[in-house]
């Protein structure tokens, strides 16, 4: 009995992977084994990058809130402690946006905490 290889499916698999390698430099874009390794590594980095993105944004928000709070004579930790105590339900993303783009509104929040 002749051996069945199913070239159609294996070719399609390779073709899909080579599409993912489009734009890579040198052999990474056109040599199967090199492209396969590069794409697999790239997908791993993409997965971990999606997790790091959340961390990076949180750290950016904290930096912006700290800068805004220090303009009004408070440290970040004291500011956030007061926010939690007072029951103001604004998250770090919103507070950072207020500190950057709407300083008057941020000042109102700080004044509310100082009372």
Please render the helix and strand layout as text.
Elements: H1 7-20, H2 32-71, H3 76-86, H4 92-101, H5 103-114
Helix pairs in contact: 1-2, 2-4, 4-5
Please describe what this structure looks like:
Helix 2 crosses helix 4. The protein is rod-shaped. It has helices at 7-20, 32-71, 76-86, 92-101, 103-114. The protein has a single domain, classed as c-terminal domain of poly(a) binding protein, CATH 1.10.1900. It has 115 residues and is mainly alpha-helical.
The proportion of residues forming helix, as a percent range, comes to over 70%
The N- and C-terminal alpha carbons lie at a distance of 88 Å
Structural class: mainly alpha
Number of strands: 0
Q: Main sheet?
A: none
What is the arithmetic mean of pLDDT? 96
Shape: rod-shaped
- Order of secondary-structure elements: HHHHH
Percent of residues in β-strands: under 5%
Number of domains: 1
Provide the CATH top-level class. Answer: Mainly Alpha
Overview in brief:
The protein is mainly α. It has helices at about 5-20, 30-70, 75-85, 90-100, 105-115. The protein is about 75% helix and about 0% strand.
Give the key terms.
76% helix; single chain; 115 residues; c-terminal domain of poly(a) binding protein; mainly alpha
């Amino acid at each position: 009995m002749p051996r069945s290889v199913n070239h159609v499916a294996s070719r399609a698999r390779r073709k899909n992977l080579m599409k993912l390698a489009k734009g890579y430099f040198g052999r990474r874009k056109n040599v199967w084994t090199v492209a396969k390794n590069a794409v697999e590594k790239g997908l791993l980095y993409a997965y971990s990058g999606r997790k790091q993105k959340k961390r990076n944004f949180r750290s950016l928000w904290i930096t912006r809130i700290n800068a805004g709070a220090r303009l009004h004579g408070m440290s970040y930790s004291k500011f956030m402690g007061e926010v939690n105590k007072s029951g103001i339900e604004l998250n770090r993303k919103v507070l950072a946006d207020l500190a950057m783009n709407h300083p008057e509104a941020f000042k109102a929040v700080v004044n509310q905490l100082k009372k």
